[in-house]
Amino acid sequence: MFDQADAIRTKPTRGRIRYRLGCAGAVLASAVLALVVSISAALLIPVSSCACAMPLDLVVQNYSHQDASVSWSQPGLFGTPLRGLSGGAVAAGCRTLSAGLRSGVVEVSVNAGGVSRTFHLHVRDAQADGPAAIVIGADGRIADPISGDPPGGLRQQDALC
After folding, report:
1. What is this structure's pTM?
2. Where along the chain do its domains lie?
């Protein structure tokens, strides 16, 4: 009975090397394919896999009568925009804006009446102690963010001024 293994043993050395390289190439190709499939599957998983409400991470209380624009951005995988988070909203005059963000360092920019400030906030990590609160005063000045509840409490529906 003559099988493939005997055929390889009877081939010259060059044939055996080709056969072994072919096997190694197949193993390498299958490993690369498995890696590509697992990365692709990880990218398809939603960032927040539940439809529940996001936690309150950012509160902007606008005590001025002018609207203020608030934007935020957070890097994604390996510092790239891939699966990063960016967004924005308007903090209406005399109202409170609340937002839920992903954990990590988030860059938040606030623009009120021509004055713009940018902050790097820690969200849901060891340095964060509750939501980050940014207060815009009646004169349009943007205060430094504080961690925890803002001085006026977390009034959502009531007019602030």
Report:
1. 0.62
2. 4-44, 58-147
